[in-house]
């Protein structure tokens, strides 16, 4: 139960951070060529998950309450793209290049297909 609360608190903080950072970036650059706010939180999330995972693993703390709070909670609320990046990185780091490429392609293609499917379903139900 405590673990769920720790993750939930981290998730709430990450979600609020995502909202604030995305809105800040979009206000600062309203005519950006890309979705700058989303790009910012995804890039920041990937940087932070790499840094935090390396630090926690070096100290034998992977899976600890701090890991759950920061990686599963805060960064999970900030962006799940960071988890996608970390998992893909681990495949490449382990020399499993084909798995890494397959993960990258599968996640992106499935994501786009599911957005398309959701859009189609939404239009049917309108």
From TrEMBL:
Its main location: membrane. The chain crosses the membrane at residues 28-56, 68-92, 98-117. GO terms for cellular component: plasma membrane. It is a multi-pass membrane protein. HAMAP family: FluC. Belongs to the fluoride channel Fluc/FEX (TC 1.A.43) family. Fluoride-specific ion channel. Important for reducing fluoride concentration in the cell, thus reducing its toxicity. One of its GO terms (molecular function) is fluoride channel activity. This is Fluoride-specific ion channel FluC. It catalyses: fluoride(in) = fluoride(out). Na(+) binds at residues 76, 79. It comes from the Bacteria. It is found in: Cell membrane. Keywords: Cell inner membrane, Cell membrane, Ion channel, Ion transport, Membrane, Metal-binding, Sodium, Transmembrane, Transmembrane helix, Transport. The keyword Ion transport applies. GO terms for biological process: cellular detoxification of fluoride. Na(+) is not transported, but it plays an essential structural role and its presence is essential for fluoride channel function.
């Amino acid at each position: 139960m405590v673990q769920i609360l720790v993750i939930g608190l981290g998730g709430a903080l990450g979600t609020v951070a995502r909202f604030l950072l995305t809105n800040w970036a979009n206000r600062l650059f309203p005519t950006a060529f890309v979705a700058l706010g989303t790009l910012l939180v995804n890039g920041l999330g990937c940087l932070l998950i790499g840094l935090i995972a390396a630090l926690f693993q070096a100290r034998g703390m992977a899976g600890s309450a701090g890991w759950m709070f920061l990686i599963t909670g805060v960064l999970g609320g900030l962006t799940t793209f960071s988890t996608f990046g970390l998992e893909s990185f681990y495949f490449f780091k382990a020399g499993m290049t084909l798995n890494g490429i397959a993960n990258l392609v599968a996640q992106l293609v499935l994501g786009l297909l599911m957005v398309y499917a959701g859009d189609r379903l939404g239009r049917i139900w309108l």
